[in-house]
Design goal:
alpha/beta; TIM Barrel; five-stranded parallel sheet; three-stranded mixed sheet; 8 strands; binds zinc ion
Length: 279
Amino acid sequence: MNTAALGAAAIGFGAFKPEKHQFIIRFDTESRRREGMKGFFEKVVSVQRSNEIPVSFFCQGSAIVKRESEFRAFHQEINGDQLFDIQDHSYSHVGLGYAEGKSIEVLRADYENSFSTHERVFGSRPIGVSLCGTKVDGDHLSGFDATDKSRAELDMLADMGIRMVNTFHSAHDSNHEFIDYSDLGHPEMMGFPSANSDNGWVRGRNFGDPVEYIVSEIRKNAPLGKHMAIMFHDDTEWIDVDDKELDLFKLVADVARENGYELSTHVGCYDRFKQQQVE
Ligand SMILES: [Zn+2]
């Protein structure tokens, strides 16, 4: 048998094949309201530890600057704890993958500003970004594969050391699939699923009662073996819907486990993705 072909196959789409279906929770941590957000980090740390809930925090550079002492204390508290994962969400909430997006130079400068803020405050640069939604850059494309410009944006992230970003590819389900970007020249990069933004199902109540909705979504997807992702925002939970006990956050974790999901951080998935590519 041709071992080179086997090696190539192992690096194909879906190299990350966990034994159990994954449930990834993230907070896009982007509020610049210092006073309003007081107490958030302490609460989320305590809830995560007492319930053993792994979560990734995709932090926006400008929020880190505005709430620097809070972010520093948070990082100091959680550093080395596998339940926590700190990644990036751009400096000023710039959009990747838009038809009328900013130039590569502008995007690169924005991300570089954010990554160097991470380096200054946390002592390390991120390896992951979660895509930002904008309302000013025209239509969102179907994926990084859509245009030369969007391919160049993925190349830019790779060049800046990013190894995981949303699954954003026209051939794949961004809500449920982990992928690699080998067909765009980046087998080293993992795409992670992203869905269920709390601005829709919690704050907007777009699907009726939030608890009933999310419980039914988890029960629907679990038997299908589909990975699931939940996207919270620090200020949506803490300020906008005033859930200062983080009850919804605890609830989704509980219900996911009851339905057979394995909860993981994004970097926890990436580490296994990388391992499986080596094997
Ligand atoms: Zn955001």
